[in-house]
Amino acid sequence: MSMACTRRMFLASAPLALAGCVGSDGSLSSSQDRSSAFIGLYPELTDGDVTIPAIDVSEIDPRFFRQVVDYNGPQKPGSIVVDTPRRHLYFVLAGKKAVRYGCGVGKAGFEFKGAGVIGRTAIWPHWAPTPNMIAVQPQRYGPVKAGLPGGIDNPLGARALYIHRDGQETNYRVHGTDDPSTIGEAVSSGCIRLFNHDVIDLHSRVARGAPIMVLQGKAEVA
Q1: pLDDT value of position 209
Q2: Residue 82: strand pairing partners
Q3: Closest to 110 (Cα-Cα) out of 214, 9, 213
Q4: What distance in Å separates the CA atoms of residue 192 and residue 214, rounded to the nearest whole number?
Q5: Domains located in the chain, CATH noted
Q6: What is the DSSP letter of 55?
Q7: What does the DSSP 8-state code read for residue 90?
Q8: DSSP H or E segment with residue 161
Q9: Contact between residue 47 and residue 143 where contact means Cβ atoms under 8 Å apart
Q10: Which residues have a catalytic role annotated?
């Protein structure tokens, strides 16, 4: 199941430089060593009445695991920055640090451009296809036009952070996914997606009205 913001979704933005986002795990010598360092980070998790399966870290590129990194960009603490080319989302902390998450992004031609704010958030959000999606693919989306309740099989995953601009909600958001293999990929129809574990962590940190900036081109990333 996909949509303007499903498990295969995305969000993008305006020119700005990360000005140096350096991982703090550089002392680990190999990909296998780095993976072993993250064992236990993504265990089976009970969230309300939903059980989120554990993630097999041996199957994931270690650069997409949640970790605190050095951050020298101009954004203030509490901001979200998405580095689309490198498939990373940053939540900026004080002290020139950030929590870095691996993310999945949208395919070329499906990008939201520009800065925004987190206008609202939802826990295990309801999902429904847009009228345009139903019009384009009626056989696929017509049967679920009323939407799906929140749950482990819902395309939006465990949390959704809805992007607003100029006081209006866009059709883009940051959300979870139950398909870890899509993290680091550009296969969505719109929004940014994180591991369910990670979107729960991000949701716990983000305040309503937090600024979000998505960096789209390589020239924007230092």
Answers
A1: 96
A2: 89, 214
A3: 9
A4: 10
A5: 21-220 (2.40.440.10)
A6: P
A7: E
A8: strand 159-165
A9: no
A10: 175, 191
Both structure tokens of 31: 């990909």
Measured CA to CA, the distance from residue 80 to residue 99 in angstroms comes to: 10
With 0-12 CB in 10 A as exposed, 13-18 as middle and 19+ as buried, what is 196? Answer: buried
Q: What is the DSSP-derived secondary structure letter of residue 53? A: P
Tell me, what DSSP letter sits at residue 101? Answer: E
pLDDT at 189: 64
pLDDT digits (tens, 9 = 90+) for 169-193: 988 899 999 899 999 998 766 689 9
The strand pair at 67-71 and 80-83 is best described as unpaired
Alpha-carbon torsion angle 164, 79, 104, 129, nearest 10: -20
| pTM (predicted TM-score) | 0.81
Q: What is the C-alpha separation between 158 and 47, in angstroms, rounded?
A: 8
> Which residues touch 105 (CB under 8 Å, ≥6 apart)?
10, 11, 12, 82, 84, 87, 185, 186, 188, 192
DSSP-assigned letters across all residues of 41-79: SS--EEETTEEEPPP-GGGS-GGGS-EEEEE-SSPPTT-
